[in-house]
Amino acid sequence: MVPLAYYLIVSALLFCLGVLGVLTRRNSIVIFMSIELMLNAANLGFVAFSHFLGGLDGQLFVFFIMVVAAAEVTVGLAVIVALYRNWDTIFADRIHLLKG
Amino acid sequence: MEQVMSSINLSAIAPELILVVCSLLILLIQSFAPIRLKGWYGYVSLIGVVGAVAVVLTQPQSFELRAIEYSFNGMWVVDNYCRFFKLIFLLGTGLTILISIKYLDNEAMQHGEYYALIIFATLGMMIMSSGAELITIFLGVELMSISLYVLAGYTRNRMISNEAALKYFLLGSFATCFLLYGIALIYGSTGTTSIPAIAKFIAGAGFGGPTIVMGMALLVIGFGFKTASVPFHMWAPDVYEGAPAPVTAFMSAGPKAAAFAAFARIFMEALPSLQTNWTMLIWVMAVLTMSVGNVIALVQENIKRMLAYSSIAHAGYVLVAFLSAGERGISSILYYMLAYTCMNIGAFAVITVLAGKGEQRVRIADFRGLGYRHPIAALAMTLFLFSLAGIPPTGGFMGKFYIFSAAIKEGFVGLAIIGVINSVVSVYYYLRVTVAMYMQAPDTAAEKEIPVTVFSPALVIAIFISAYGVLSLGLFPSTYLAMVKLSFLTLL
Predict the structure, then answer these.
(1) How much is the pTM?
(2) The complex's ipTM?
(3) Which of B72, B138, B157, B166 to mutate to test the interface with A (most CBs of A within 10 A)?
(4) How far is A60 from chain B (nearest CA, A)?
C-alpha cells in the first residue's frame, strides 16, 4: 500500500503549483484554473487523511467542496464574461482602473 | 449553563429558514408578478429581516441562562454568542436594504436578485456564526463570499465595478483554498471536523504536532483575507472603491463581523491549547493592520477608498480584542462590531445619497460646503466620523475604550499603546472630511452646480437608526454591556 506521506507530498506539491500559478499568471482564466488546482489539492488531502484515519468525514467534506467549487466556477465565469464585455480583455495586468 | 443535544431541530434554524423563504419569495415575485411591483422587493426583504430578528430574540434558549443547544448531530449550535452576532448581521442587512432602495432606483437597476443575494449573504454569515463543525463554517463562508462576488459586480455596466468583482473573486477564492487546506491539515491531525471534538483531542493528546500548527497558520491566512487584515488586505481598498456604495457598506460591516465570529469560535473553542502559537502571529498582524490601515488612509482622496483603509484599521482594533481572548476580549469584540456596524453603514448611507447617479462625486473634495447645502446630512456624517475616530460621547469611543482596557488587563500593554497612538493618527483623516464639509466653500463653478439631492424616507430612517445606535452605544453603554457580558463564548 502507498503510504500516507506520498499522498500528502503530492497534495502539497499541487497546492504550491496552484499558488505559483495564481501569483505568476496574468490571464484571469488561468489564475482561476490555478485556484481550482489548489482546491483539488485540499480534496486530495482530505481523501488521503480520511482513508488512513478510517473515518468518512473527510470524504464527505470533499463532496461539499466539489459542489462549492462548481458554484464558484459559475459565478467566476460570469464575472469574467461581464468584465470582458466592458474591457475587451481578461488579462489581469491590463485591468487597472483601481490602483492597488 | 446547560447543554442540550438533539438531531433535527427546526426551531434552532428558524431565523435562517425565514431568510431562505424570504429570498426565494423575492426571486419568485420577480419572475411571476407584474413589473409594477418592482419597488416592493426591498420591502419584502425587510419584512424577512425583521422576522428573523424577532425569531432570534425569542428562540427558546434563554438568554439569561446562557444555554447552549447543539442540534443536527453536533453540526449546529445556538448560543448567546451566535445570537448576538446574528443580531449584528441582521442590523447591517436591514440598514443596507434601506439605503439600497433609493440607490437602485437612481441607477435604474431595481432587480429582485440584488435583495435575494444580500439575504443569501446574510444567511451565509449566520451559518458561519452558528457552525459547530468546520464543514458548516466552510459552507457559510462560501455562501457569503459567492453572494458578495456577484454583488460587488452588480452594476455590471460600470468598468470599475467589473474590476472590483474580478479582484474580489480571484483573491477571495484564493483565500478560501488556504482556509480549506488548513482545515484538511487539522482534520488530518485530529481525525475530526467537529469543534468540541478537536478541542477534546488536542487537550487529550497534549501538543498537536507540526501538522496542526501548520493547519492553524493556514487558517490564520484564510481568515486574515476574509477580515482584510494586513498583510492580506490588498483586495479591500480596490473592492470597496469599485463596488456600488450600498454593497460596500454591507461588505464592510456584516461579513467582517461574520469572519471574526467564525475566527474566534474556531480559535477559542477548538484551538485554545495552541494559544501561545497564535498569539505571536496575531500580535504582529494586529500591529501591522492598525498601522498600515491608518497611515495609508491619511493620503486618500476618494472617500470610499479612505473608509476602506479605515475599515482595515478597525479590523486591527478588533484583532487586539481577539488577542485579549477570555471574557473581556470576546465581549469587547461583540460591542465593537455592533458600534462599527452602526457608524460605518451610517457613513456610507450619507455617501450613497451624496455621490449621485453613477457615483460621480466620491472625492473628499466633493464634500466641500456640504454643511451649508445639507446641514442635517452633514451633521449625521460628522457624528459617524467622530464615532469612527473614537471621540466621546459615541459608540466608537466606548468600543475602543473596552478593547484597550481588555488588552491592558490581559497584559498586552504595548499593543494597547500602539492602538491608542493609531487611534490618534486616525483622527486626522476623519476630521479632514469634517473640515471640508464646514470650513471650505466649493471653489469651482462646476462644483457649485450640484443638483439637489433627494433623500428618500427609507434612507432617512437608515441614517436615523444608525445615529441612534451610535449615540445610545456611547451614552448608555450599560444596557448593551449587560447583553454583551451574557454573550461571550460560553465554552471558554
Answers:
(1) 0.94
(2) 0.96
(3) B166
(4) 9
